[in-house]
Amino acid sequence: MRQRPNASEAARAKLDVSHEEEEKGNKSMESRFFSSEKNVFGLCLVFRIVNSLLVQTYFNPDEHWQALEVAHRLVFGYGHLTWEWKKGIRSYLHPMIFALLYKFLVLLGLDTPWFMMRAPRMLQSVFSAVCDFYLYKLSYVIFGGHVAKWTLLSQLGNWFMFFCLNRTLSNSLETVLTVVALYYWPCFTGSSHKVSSNSRKWALALAAFACAIRPTSAIIWIYVGLLELFVAHDRLRFVILEVVPIGALVLGAVCLLDRLMYGSWILVPLNFLKFNFLSAGGDYYGTHKWHWYFTQGFPAMVFTFLPFFIAGVVKSKQWKLFGLVAWVLITYSLLGHKEFRFVLPVLPLVLMFSGYSLAVMERSSAPDGKRRRFLKIPAKWPPKMQFAIFFLLATNIPMALYMSLVHQRGTEDVMNYLSKEARNERVKSVLFLMPCHATPYYSSLHCNLPMRFLDCSPSEERGIQDESDQFMNNPIGFASEYARNWSLPSHVVLFDSEERLLRGFLTSHSFKEIRRFFHAHIKVDRDLQGSVVVYSSTG
Question: Considering Cα of 100, then 102, then 103, then 104, what sign does the dihedral take?
């Protein structure tokens, strides 16, 4: 005789059914969201726009001086061109993008201080969203949809991507072009994925533009091109009918643009190669030991995703992609001058390996149904997985917010302040007694008034210190000598580390402190520059 189930068993069975239905509902909702590419791109776009508004700190001078400052000069007729533009080692292709943005703002009457400072990064956020989206698609093609979701989480969750990708550096756009081009490159994705039959031509065109914007991007595409030659069956067609004509077309178009802007024929990639590789001109701005990218630079960028990256490489066995990352790091290690941003284009590939590792962890460590219900853990996030996600977010989110909102924000805040004061006609001229290119310039001030900063152009003669180094080595001596022939500025801007030494000098020349902006808690490559101080003339 069958026994009727007791009340507790019936309740447990009902709970099992409801939990299973909840799990199916969650999975169905997730699958519906990721089944639409529009949803994925929309998520990336909204995230990066918010991201761009949260980036309020100073990172690298090139963000302003090699892109926005040049674009501002093109549109508004004033702005400083650094020595690189006089030597012809920069192409106008990248600044032209922001020149078009500025022109658009003028037409709409939106060239106000807020938009002039925010709009460029908001435009870059659109490019960044494209990078995120195509990294998702690249991961989907290589590993499948399950890994692609975790790749996207890794990309959006990495602190350095949050901190750097939305900046108007040429390296940021190079990263976007690199990821999109790799998606269309058959030797990585295979011929089975559903893209146009001309995908390799699209990849070549994007790679050519990446090299036009950053000639050093050729390091990436030499590896990819050689790999394609090794695996392709139509090598002759690839070289003669694709590489040569596409490369020549892009190079010719960029040379024509530079001819129009410079006023003479200039081959920027050749000049760039001569300065940075043949003459080691980049070493003028500092050098690091050969192992810096492996022991400090790249681990700091990858941060707590590093063990997941290593695990992902070992488990996925995608040696071609890992080879590209290793090739770039090794090649850049041969150069004396090293910076974080130089290797930014391969960081998304590292985060894709991290996504693979997380996807494997989710599937391999999922507990059984009873234990999951007992722990009240969602089906897709077992305890080990929950800890991994918590660990990554708890380490990367604070880092991203601190670096984007706090560390080295004073130099941007001071230009925002001066811009507003200048619009109210309370600023007549500005002298920056600080290391060269320590602040944004006319692209942020957006007011045509005299400004002066300390020059740091490389000298033709070795052993001669530039103005910036002279000042940093002897602030009082340099300022006293400079004051003999200066046209008295209405405002002087300097870091507190030098302001303490020059306080008496400034007071004796009828200056008084009017504002002080927090800058940093920790020193970077000089003495602690804790705040940016503004002095105003009382004469």
Answer: positive
